[in-house]
Design brief:
Strand 2 and strand 3 form a beta hairpin. The strands form 4 sheets. Strands 4, 8, 9, 10, 15 and 16 form a 6-stranded antiparallel β-sheet that branches. The protein has a 5-stranded antiparallel β-sheet with strand order 1-18-17-3-2, covered by helices on one side. Strands 11-12-13-14 form a 4-stranded antiparallel β-sheet, with no helix packed on it. The protein contains 9 helices and 18 strands. It is about 40% helix and about 30% strand. The longest helix has about 30 residues, at about 50-85. The protein is α+β, with helices and mostly antiparallel strands. Helix 2 (about 20-35) crosses helix 3 (about 40-50) and helix 3 packs across helix 4 (about 50-85).
């Protein structure tokens, strides 16, 4: 870079430390938020989405990964040209260790024989000697950098363009429509799972809107899509239609409420509008230990409160009713409900692509690094008799450094030998 300022900015943005520093700053911000709120992650996301400076700071991560990817490819190609005998590609940044020696006039023949005996492939172009062994992990590194670029680019897109809507999917009712008419949820089922990770499988079957279309099934994982939005089931609930009347009320109160009373034993309450009455609902636990959400055999336990006074408790099944002391409570209908998030987020695809690339990179890197680590060394001699030597290793660095230093010692011995001969 000719401009010092531009060169400094380039070095900072393309530095290996840039991504860890930005992640560290976000981590400090997350820790600070965690002291003030329980849901620190969502709070951090909301703060970041509304703050241009924080978004710009986060954007440095994919930019840094893109520059690192470009530099990785550039350095790899320069190294390949150097191994091929292009002496002009010699650069200290390509090596883990570099050495400069003066007054070197001996050929590389002895060093080449020593390296060949140690298992290295060599190429002697006269002005340079290159030696290498093993397989380069360059493809794995490129995939890793590309995966990180995709991951943080996807997160950045999510921060800027993610929209979310939470709705209740009710058995027998139309799906909460994001746009246009929606089909009816025919059935919600919860069944035991035979898989390795989930103990239960939730499925929601959606009837098609138009004739000839296939039914659509939503499950827990992987998330399904509906009209461009991902469908994420969050909580199970019960849709309860009940009627309540009391001798001191003018009429019958009818309501259809979504209650968070699953699993059995969990309580949820509703207040009768314009009255001192409050009803606390819960699901009864069947005697056989089964899940009523799975079997459909749902008995409702309830407590009738007047102010803070418990009047009585009782239970009733679907279609049943309970009457006592002038108070009547009936349950004509009950349905399964799933509280669901509909999330429109194009960054998810990039995050999934990143996860796939991470797996491929690991599968490539692990056997190469463990069994065939790449080791390279280059010796370049100038017309003035100055020797530039460089060494790098992706594994087995200590053994490789020993061979490299032996080669340097051999060149040093030859230099002294030639000097002594000329002196005589």
């Amino acid at each position: 870079m000719k401009n010092p300022l531009i060169g400094s900015i380039w070095r900072i943005i393309s530095s290996r430390a840039m991504t860890p520093v930005v992640i560290g700053l976000y981590l400090l911000l997350y820790i600070g938020i965690a002291f003030k709120t329980e849901d620190a992650l969502m709070a951090l996301i909301e703060i970041a989405r509304s703050n241009v400076l924080l978004i710009a700071l986060f954007a440095l991560i994919p930019l840094n990964r893109l520059l690192r990817l470009m530099l990785e490819i550039s350095e790899h190609l320069a190294g390949r040209r150097l191994l091929a005998g292009n002496c002009e590609e010699m650069c200290a940044e390509l090596f883990d260790e570099d050495v400069t020696m003066t007054e070197v006039s001996s050929p590389f023949a002895d060093v080449e024989r020593r390296l060949t005996a140690s298992g290295y492939s060599t190429r002697n172009s006269g002005c340079s000697l290159a030696a290498w062994r093993g397989i380069s992990a360059f493809p794995a590194r490129v995939l890793f950098l590309a995966a990180t670029l995709l991951l943080f680019s996807g997160v950045l897109i999510s921060l800027g363009g993610r929209t979310s809507y939470r709705g209740a999917i009710i058995e027998g009712e139309p799906l909460p429509a994001l746009t246009g008419p929606a089909g009816v949820i025919e059935r919600i089922t919860l069944e035991p799972s035979t898989g390795l990770f989930l103990s239960k499988v939730l499925t929601m079957t959606l009837a098609p809107v138009n004739a000839g279309e296939a039914k659509q099934i939503f499950g827990l994982y992987p998330p399904s899509r509906y009209r461009g939005a991902f469908v994420y089931p969050r909580y199970l609930g019960i849709g309860l239609y009940y009627k309540f009347s009391a001798h001191d009320l003018p009429g019958v109160h009818e309501a259809y409420d979504i209650l968070s009373i699953h699993p059995p034993g969990k309580e949820d309450s509703r207040t009768i509008p314009g009255s001192p009455y409050r009803i606390v609902f819960s699901l009864a636990q069947p005697g056989d230990g089964s899940d009523p959400y799975m079997t459909g055999r749902m008995d409702i336990l309830f407590k009738v409160m007047k102010g803070n006074v418990l009047l009585f408790t009782g239970s009733a099944n679907i279609g049943g009713e309970f009457s006592r002391d002038g108070i009547r409570l009936a349950f004509p209908e009950i349905r399964r409900v799933v509280l669901t998030d509909f999330i429109s987020d194009q960054g998810v695809f990039m995050v999934w692509g990143a996860m796939l690339l991470y797996v491929v990179a690991l599968l490539l890197w692990l056997p190469v690094r463990c069994c065939f680590p790449r080791q390279e060394m280059v010796f370049v001699k100038s017309d003035e008799g100055i020797l530039y030597a460089g060494s790098r290793a992706e594994g087995g660095g200590r053994w490789h450094a020993g061979i490299f230093h032996e080669a340097l010692d051999l060149l040093e011995e030859k230099r002294h030998s030639n000097t002594t001969t000329l002196g005589k």
